[in-house]
Amino acid sequence: MRVSDASNFSNTIFYLTQARVRQAETQQQIASGKRITKASDDPIGFGKALDYRTTVATLEQRQVSATLASSQLEEVDSALQSATQTVLARAEELSVAMTNSTNGAGERKDAAAELKGLISQMLNLANSKLGDRSLFSGATTRGRLVGTSIAPPSAGAPATITAGSNDTLTFKVDGVSSGSVTLTAGNYATGQSLATEVQTRVNADATLIAAGKSVRVTFATDHLVIASNAYGSASTVTVTAGSARRTIGVAGGTSSNGGDPFSLSVQTGEAARNTGGAVVSPGLVTDASKLTFNDYLLKFTSATAYNIYNANSGVIAAGAAANTGGGIVSKTSVNDPSQVTLDSYAVRFKNISTVQAGVNDTIQFDPGTGPVTATLAAGQYTGAQLATQIKSALEAAGGGKTYTVAFNESTAKYSITNDIANGTSLSLLFGNP
Q1: DSSP of 212-279, one letter per residue?
Q2: For 83, left (φ over 0), alpha (ψ -120 to 50), or beta?
């Protein structure tokens, strides 16, 4: 059989083309460093390559996790060393030193101030982070309110909610204020039943539902824990009002956000000695991201009732008859919360005098022309106010005579001076106390 030149030429072109294809594939393998670039190159080898790649990715992720865990352990170890070897060691040193009777009031005051700073350091260490991860409270944290201790609900001592008496609460969840939440009246014999009722009623609030906000409520040993279902620094829960606050233990306690989960609190018990306006401080932390040590004041108005006042607010007060009884005046505006650190204020009005008509409202005196009686206006007065009232009453009864009346805040005593222009002597008569 004769092979034509055209056939030879076609075969030559075919083999040259195949050789160029293999050359191109070889050059691609050399350039990429890969023998297999697509499944058709080697189906079995391609499958093995995918398995190897998955194994390598898993090992790399484990290496990243191991590095992160190692860094976290190093940070935890550093924080715990600072807490034990620096903060607690100094607190122990101060405590031992202050047991020495040679330390006076000044030294003890300075030590108390330093201990307050050490407590703040411990709080900062507890809220330590590695990046955005908390060292001591897990990778994700939720803002929460931790209530104060209440009598552990039981069959013998249930928490009792009475309709129209102690059944309302108002919440702020993640910055959204709820409407008035009404708890179902009745006896709650277990802590969990009380927690379930609070959670159910809060999560049924229309305002919170519309904003997509909700909470989870649990009972931990002897107190309620109300946590937001959101995470991060914007996650917060506070109870702002309501007649049920004291009954369920949320009139005080601690409130922290998801960014700084640990906070400080104070607890106090009911007792007869609490009467007379006892003040307990510090207390609730409402925004740990801005305030390093948020002080609250608890003022007892009777043996079992008290009011809570925010001492981190600006305090404005003026003398008035209604200020009797050591009243605390508090305002709610804070111009720059970031500048508020450890200051607390209690405003009390002292030397309040009460004038009662027909009982202690008259002063008998002789302006030099014979005995007369000065009558004071009934009411309640500060020292300076009563001095002004005494001057007016004396001059009204003195027949044109003038007097100077002053009050000494330090000694709580009054002085009455006969003005030189009177020309006659002044005598106080004591027939009427």
Answers
A1: T--EEEEEETTEEEEEESS-STT--EEEEE-TTTTTTT-SSSEEE-SSS-----------GGGTTT-E
A2: alpha
pLDDT at residue 341, rounded to an integer:
36
Sequence-distant (≥ 6) Cβ neighbours of residue 260 within 8 angstroms? 127, 233, 288, 289
Q: For residue range 146-191, list pLDDT tens digits in order.
A: 887 786 665 555 688 999 888 999 999 998 999 999 999 998 888 8
Is residue 341 a contact partner of residue 292, using CB atoms and an 8 Å limit? Answer: yes
pTM over cut 0.70: no
SS3 93: helix
Q: Closest Cα partner for 226 from 292, 174, 283, 186?
A: 174
d(CA 378, CA 349): 19
Residues 6+ apart with CB under 8 A from 424: 367, 368, 369, 401
Q: How confident is the model at residue 111 (pLDDT cuts 50, 70, 90)?
A: confident
* pLDDT tens track for 358-414: 888 999 999 988 899 999 999 888 888 899 999 999 999 988 899 999 988 778 889
